[in-house]
Amino acid sequence: MPTTNVSPQKQPKGKPSKRVAKRAGRAPAGFKTLVEPLTKRRVVRARARSGVEVWVAPMPGYRKSYAMMTTRYGSMDTHLPDGEELPDGIAHFLEHKMFQTPEGDVFDLYAARGASANAFTTFTHTSYLFSATSRFEENLITLLETMDDIHADDPGVEREKGIIGQELAMYEDDAGWRGYFGLLQALYRRHPVRIDIGGTAASIAPIDPAILQRTHAAYYSPANMVLTVSGDVDPARVLALVDQVTGTRRRGHHNRRRAAEEPKGVAQREVRTKLSISRPQVLLGLKDRPGRGPQGRVRRRIQGAILFEILFGDGGRIQAPLYHQGLVDDSLSGGYEAEHDYAFGLVSAEVDQIEPYRKALLAALRAAARDGPTDAEVERCRRRFIGRHLRVFNQPESTAHWMLALALEGVEPGAAVDALRSATAAGLRRHLRELVSAPRAWSILEPR
Known about the structure:
The protein has 448 residues and is of the alpha+beta class. A seven-stranded mixed beta sheet has the order 1-2-3-9-4-8-7, with helices on both faces.
């Protein structure tokens, strides 16, 4: 379950030395140099002896360094490799327990050094991170050592159930969270994306130290993990520290998920939930198909993002007319999500009247599918997205997350830019027609 709220800021400390600048432009032994095509930003990638995939973006002159250790294990992994079924929410539960050691909470150790640490769980992965302006190597060793083992006893696990139970209760009252997962449960019949990342109080109740140990052994092995580091750091030193800390660990296996056997249709056309809110919230989901292969998925995801920006961004093809008609306010938004075996478009808004809005939204989508995006709209959106992409490289945090996305998807640094450049009005029109005719579902939150 996401818990991080990073506000990255560039913190240059003056002109880098010639030695540091030279180091940033040349890959050390064991690393492969990769180049982002627009900025010419160089990042390096290597495989540690233990199997950990290591990505480093040297950023000479920055005070802040950022490191993130990620396992390819998230809430969608509902079974161990041997077929044993896992309780819903155990990935998030494991995230909580990883910071607890016999010596105390690892967060306290980071804080004593002036570092900021956090963690989050998603459908597909779990990440542990820190940012620091000093004592980077000490903090990196702590991060690597934290992943090595899980310290769980019966009293600690039971105590954590109470803490997580309170967190789950908080999300029960969160309108955005309830509406989103209500929509996923309406869209998908069998796919594990329909399961709340944190599980429920009932689903986490059977969790014990033994199942946590087995899950950690299966999914926290070095071969299943990615380390992304950005800042004024030496890549060779980073790799040496990874080898030093993880070199004796059992290598393990890369987690390769099988596609879920999900029917084409939706589970329910509509889900309604009563909640303590002042106005109804309406979410529309359009069940799409993902692209084939890593490059195909990136292209499909970029196409979906462009479409929903054209339609629902500020002044968008659908946003502006609905706004001027008084049917929506600035809460209207649209987005597109896709992974290896699922994809969907999402439109969300707070409204005064549910049915007039739904009728107008569907009519606007059908009209947009008939006309399709224009070349001018596509080009404006392409430039907007390229601008956002360029800003990624201003901060160590966003740079590290960009590298993680490349590692998890298995693509090169130019994949997103290539997808942006190859997007055409004709291709987007086809995609939009597919979306408008796709199975759809509604999640509606009503004032209690």
